[in-house]
Structures are given as C-alpha cells and as structure tokens.
From TrEMBL:
InterPro entries xrefs: KR_dom, NAD(P)-bd_dom_sf, SDR_fam
Family: Belongs to the short-chain dehydrogenases/reductases (SDR) family.
Annotated keywords: Oxidoreductase
Matches recorded under NCBIfam families: PRK06523.1 (NF005095)
Ketoreductase domain mapped to chain residues: 14-188
Protein name: SDR family oxidoreductase
Highest taxon listed in the record's lineage: Bacteria
GO molecular function: oxidoreductase activity, acting on the CH-OH group of donors, NAD or NADP as acceptor
Family annotation (SUPFAM superfamilies): NAD(P)-binding Rossmann-fold domains
A Pfam family of this chain: adh_short_C2
Amino acid sequence: MENNLDYNTELQGKIALVTGGTKGIGKAIAESLSQAGATVIITARNLPKDVNKAHNFIAADLSQTEIITKLANEITEKFGRIDILINNMGANTLPGGGFSTLTDEHWDEALQVNLLSSVRLDRALLPNMLAQKAGVIIHVSSTSGMFPLWEATMAYSAAKAALNAYSKSLASEVSQHGVRVITVSPGLNKTEAMSAFLEDLANKAGITMEEMTQNLMARVGGIPLGRMAEPEETAALVRFLVSPRASYITGANYAIDGGNFPVV
C-alpha cells in the first residue's frame, strides 16, 4: 500500500499542550510536535530566555489546584480546545538515603509533582476531549516507577508507579469515547535535571561525574546500548504515539531505556 502521509504536516491543525515544556524531554517534545505542524502551548513556572518564540508560553505552577483551573480556562479562551496533552511535569529533587530521610512533606511533594498535577490537569481538560470524541493524553512517567532505587528514588518511584496505574485506568475508561491515553517511561536521559542529579550523587560519594554515571548505569542493571538517551529520541516516540499512525494504541506503557529494563 502506498503511504502518502507527510510526516511534517501530520499534526497540522492540532493543538498540543506540553507541561514542563521549556527544558529537557519536555522541550524536545514541544519542538518535535511543532515540527509536525501542531500549535504548541508550553507551561513552566518561569519563562526561560531561550524559549522558542513559535511556542505559546503560559506560566503555571501545576502543583497548585487553582493554577490548573486558571490554565485550563485560559487555554479554552485562547485556543478553544486541546487535542494533545503531554503531562511531562515531574521531578526527583528529594533527598536520597531511604525511608528514614523522607518526611511527610517530602512524600507529599513527590505525589503532588509526579502524580496529582497530571490527575488534576486531565480532569480539567478531558471534558472537552470527550465532547469532541477525540484526543490523546501522554503521561511521561519513568522506568523508576517499575525499577525503584531505594537509596535515590524511593518517593519519586512510588509516585511514578501510581501514575502508571492511574494512566492505565484512565485509558480503560475513556478510550471507548475516542480519547487515547498512553504512558511513556524514559530511562536515563541526558538532560539538565539528570546532570544535576548525578552531580549531587557524585559530590556525596566523593567521586567524579563520569564515575557516578557509570555507577548509576551499573546500578540499574546496565544499558545494552551503552549510553543515555538524547531527549530528542524520547520525543520521537511521543511524536509517533500522538500521530494518526498510532491510532490503535492506548493503555500501553512504553519503556524507552536503551534495553535496560531487565524483564521480558
């Protein structure tokens, strides 16, 4: 069968929201969706100096319920709808060291940033998707949600595991109404956040960043491809999943980890 699809325009006319879209994986996703023809809205707490002027930036702290409501209203007023929602917000900034180092405040922060912000944003934007009987929601999780490291990612991993379960449940509920919900679980990505995480671990261990990088790769069982992912590689998967080419995919969790995940 002849394929006449133009990948550079396959998202033409679509309106996409990418949370955490000013750096790292979120920035790469925003760029990729824009290249495919989508109108892209990005959110973050602060506007960086190097933001792509072609993207529509809205400042928002998505850990606050009232801000999410305000964001949803602003999007509806300015753009009318959302066709693609990329819930990319998330962070592992809590202290390592296991259960004894994590306070109730730490646990609450992990859940707010890595789970509940996505739940609330879905709740705010899903009604319009359901009304138009079309839409795609991507939850950017982490392989840490399936492979936790007690000494470094305990609360973060627990929150991401909860996001995985929520995403699967939501897909089962809304896919029959035309809205696809998919989880993407990146492994180690070469981002600013990862560099800061590795630097902190290296300083605590008294070793170099290069040594800590190798230690972390070994700790997660090794990466057959032998390197971290570039954010653009993760973005390429997301771009495919939100496109018409992936129209029969929903409820799945895609690990993009260079072959790291140690189970079949």
